[in-house]
């Protein structure tokens, strides 16, 4: 008897693509749909056989693919995904994307070992995302892909970067450095864009010597800050693209006998739990980490149910004021 695998082989597509096509899913392009339907017709494939194959292929598992499983940023995000996944009776597998296209995380997608995936992994290529989205529902958290089968939950990082920089400007700082995350990080690039926009809107000249690329870790923030110190002529303030780097920077300042915020102001990004326990407590931009994870998982289950959803959701940030920014206006 002809099986769904036979149809997939003849059409040159995955089994899941045949499944979506024969269930009239809007996820499949017109050309692919035509190819699958012609293959099914040529093989005299019956849909009742497809239904039993589909039932056997269901995994009741959702994947959460992350660039790094160790950072403190991810705990709230994972909890948000986990709570929604569990409430729907599914298992959650969290995987690191180390290795990019050759990683176990990508194999979960390409081999359809999961029923859906939430992805925050800048080292998985756009091409891999687009190909995987033909097989399983995908919600991205770290980039914009203009493709009808890709769904996005985005934190407004341009807004967040702008507000962080403007917060410093409003308190009298006109010399502001930016310590970025990895060069291929979409989130960091958007925060940088917000930083540049705020400087421009407030007629403050950008200085390339105060732009340092790092890697979102405490060690990276420490090294970037040491570089700024070594250049001499420190800025009045530093905007770190995440809290971990800001915490590393605070250590570098302590070792150099520079006081935060008396000698230099700093602001971070993320509002990780540790930010409230640094000395002094870190002023930062709060991302809705739990909310982003739970919304992304909720959208996955709507897609699994065959419901139509919007392709793009944007969440706002907020400033968390603590004690690492000095108000220079009160000392003028």
Task: Write a concise synopsis of the structure shown.
The strands form three sheets. This protein has a six-stranded parallel sheet, with helices on both faces. Strands 7-6-8-9 form a four-stranded parallel sheet, with helices on both faces. It is built from twelve helices and twelve strands. The protein is of the alpha/beta class and 332 residues long.
Describe this entry's structure for a reader.
Helix 1 packs across helix 2, helix 1 (4-11) packs across helix 3 and helix 5 (74-87) packs parallel to helix 12 (289-304). The chain contains twelve helices and twelve strands. The chain has helices at residues 4-11, 15-22, 30-42, 47-57, 74-87, 104-110, 126-132, 157-170, 186-201, 218-231, 243-255, 289-304, and strands at residues 61-66, 91-96, 116-120, 138-140, 151-155, 176-180, 211-213, 237-240, 265-267, 284-286, 312-315, 318-320. With 332 residues, it is α/β, with parallel strands linked by helices.
Give the topology, please.
Blueprint: H1 4-11, H2 15-22, H3 30-42, H4 47-57, E1 61-66, H5 74-87, E2 91-96, H6 104-110, E3 116-120, H7 126-132, E4 138-140, E5 151-155, H8 157-170, E6 176-180, H9 186-201, E7 211-213, H10 218-231, E8 237-240, H11 243-255, E9 265-267, E10 284-286, H12 289-304, E11 312-315, E12 318-320
Parallel strand pairs: 1-2, 1-3, 3-4, 4-5, 5-11, 6-7, 6-8, 8-9
Antiparallel strand pairs: 10-12
Helix pairs in contact: 1-2, 1-3, 2-3, 5-12, 8-9, 10-11
